Amino acid sequence: MDHRENKFTLENFKKWMNKQGDSSSSHMEYKKPLVGTQVESKIDADRLAEKIHPEEGEPEDLIESFLEEGGAIMDVDSKNFLIEVETGSFRIHRCYVRRA
User: Fold this and answer.
1) In what order do the strands lie in the sheet with 88-93?
2) What pTM did the predictor assign?
3) CATH topology of domain 34-100
């Protein structure tokens, strides 16, 4: 075996990167199954008020709607979900929701 193949060089790094494929596609594969999933809150209204980041709608209405009817994941951003409810949408960390 030629030891030059194991040596770290720009050319070897480029070859290695080409073999890895597109890492963003694997990230997209993680997001796809979650979009559209129905979820509900793991926490009560007071904690939800502290944890949500409203995108559209009034926080009180969002919380009430989410607690009563749940919501659907519309987007996944790292460890946060964009949740759509009847009265609007908000972002929240994934640890505060569960599948409905």
Assistant:
1) 53-56, 88-93, 80-85, 71-77, 38-41, 97-99
2) 0.68
3) SH3 type barrels. (2.30.30)
Which tens digits make up the pLDDT trace of 42-71?
999 999 999 999 999 999 999 999 999 999
Domain boundaries, the chain: 34-100
Max distance between CA atoms of the chain, in angstroms, equals: 67
In three-state form (DSSP H/G/I as H, E/B as E, the rest C), the secondary structure along the chain is CCHHHCCCCHHHHHHHHHHHCCHHHHHHHHHHHHCCCEEEECCCHHHHHHHCEEEECCHHHHHHHHHHHCEEEEEEECCEEEEEECCEEEEEEHHHEEEC
